[in-house]
Design brief:
This protein is α+β, with helices and mostly antiparallel strands. The chain has 2 domains: about 1-40, no CATH class; about 45-115, no CATH class. Helices cover about 20% and strands about 10% of the residues. The strands form 2 sheets. A two-stranded antiparallel sheet has the order 1-2. Strands 3-4 form a two-stranded antiparallel ribbon. The radius of gyration is 26 Å and the shape is rod-shaped. It comes from Escallonia herrerae.
Length: about 120
């Protein structure tokens, strides 16, 4: 691979890029290893992150009354309960995933369908 001014100029066998070598060229022998593009991952689960963009926005909550959005980091310790959403979701199973995907909230209908009957 030949790189110049921060851009990839050519990719191929050594013989196909050696004509680009000149004064100040740094040649690196990778001894048969492969070069692949670099990725910067700020710990985003790519598929899950993409799906999150199509869901109802649930961030910014600090009280039950503000349950238009959800991130319990702002609550000071109190976690949401099924009863918070049961009244408005009484006929349909609902699962709300926390913004990082590491926690979720199910309403009572969803818990019943899943066979979870003791929520204490």
């Amino acid at each position: 691979m030949a790189v110049g001014s921060g851009r990839i100029l050519r990719v191929g066998e050594f013989s196909s890029v050696q004509d680009l070598a000149g004064y100040g060229t740094k040649v690196l022998n990778l001894e048969g290893k492969i070069v692949v593009p670099g990725f910067i991952d700020s710990h985003v689960h790519l598929i899950f992150g993409g799906l999150q963009m199509a869901r109802v926005e649930l961030r910014g909550v600090s009280t039950k009354d503000e349950y238009e959005t959800w991130n319990n980091d702002r609550w000071g310790g109190e976690l949401p309960m099924a009863s918070w959403i049961d009244e408005i979701t009484a006929e349909h199973p609902v699962w709300l995933s926390r913004m990082d995907g590491h926690m979720g909230l199910a309403n009572s209908v969803a818990l019943k369908i899943a066979g979870v009957t003791n929520t204490t």
